[in-house]
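User: I'm preparing a small set of examples for a lab meeting where we compare how different chains pack in three dimensions. I only have the primary sequence for this one, and I'd like the structure in C-alpha cell form so I can line it up with the others. Please keep the answer compact; I'll paste it straight into my notes.
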Amino acid sequence: MTDTFSASDTLLKEYETNGFAILRGVVDPALIEECHAHVAWLGRKYPDLRPEEYHHPLMRNDAFWVRMVSDSRLVDIAERFLGPDVACFTAHYVCKPPYDGRPVLWHQDGAYWKLTPMEALTVWLAVDHSNRGNGCLRMIPGSHVLPIHPPVSRTDVPNMLFSEAKDDLVAEWAAKAGVVEIELEPGDVSIHHPNLLHYSEPNTSADRRCGLDIGYMAASTSISNEGLYMDPLLVRGNPVPGVNSYRSWPRWNADETVPFRGDAEWDARAAAADLRSGARTGDRAETPLQVTHRMVARLQEGTVTR
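Assistant: Understood. Below is the C-alpha cell output for the 306-residue chain.
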C-alpha cells in the first residue's frame, strides 16, 4: 500500500474521535475533469433521471466508474481503516443541480445497508466545490458511537432518501455536539463512519454540487440487500472464502462509458482483477437503468434493507 496521506496517525485519531475526517487534494485536477465529462455523459445517457439519482447500479457496465472506485489513492484510504482486503459495494454520484438540488435529510448510511458485520467506510470525493451555499455535507461529531437507528419515512418534502433519522435523536446530538460543515474543493475527500449522523441541505445556489459517494467494506463483510446491491467489486487484496461472490470488472466499451486516460490498458487490468477475485458475470436480465428505478422505488417504500 502506498501512503496517500501523510499525517495518518492524526487522521486515524480524528476519525476515531469524531467519526469523520477530511483529506485535502487527494485526486488530481485532470482526473476530476474526467469526472466532469463522465457526469455530463450520464446526463445524456439517462436524461429521465434526476442527477441525484445516478445510483450504483449504473456502474455495472461502466469502466470509468469502476476506474474511479478502484483508484489507488481512494483505496489506500479505505485500506487504512478496513484492512488489506477491500471491496466496493456502492458508488453514487450525489449531484445536486443549481437552484433545485434536493437535500439529503439527517441519516446514518448504515441504516440503508444490510452488511454483516458493519465494517464499512464512506469515502466522499468532491467533484465540484462543496460549500454551505450549495448544500455541503454537515456532520455531528461523535455521533458514530450511536447504534444504527431505523429511519422514518419523509415524503412531504423532496429529498433524496425519502426518509430521515428521528428528530429527537438529531436534536439531542446536535445540542450537545454541534454540527460541522464539510467544505471541500474539487479533489478533496471526506470520510465518515456508517453510524455517523449527517445531512446536506438543498442546493438553491447557481452552482452545481457534485460528489462521488463510495461505499467500501472489508472483504470479510457480507452484503445481503435483496435485489439492489449487486455482487461487490474486489478492489484490493483477496476474497475471503464463503463470504461474497464478486462480479466482473466491466471491459471498456464506447457505448457504456467515456474515454479516459489508461483506457487502452483497461481490459488487461480488469482481467487481472477478475482472476484475483474469481469474478462471475451474474444475471444481466435487467438493465442498469431498470435496477436504478427499482432502487429509487425501494427508497420511497422504505424497503432498501429488505
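A couple of notes for your slides: The chain has a mean pLDDT of 93. The radius of gyration is 18 Å.

User: Perfect, thanks.
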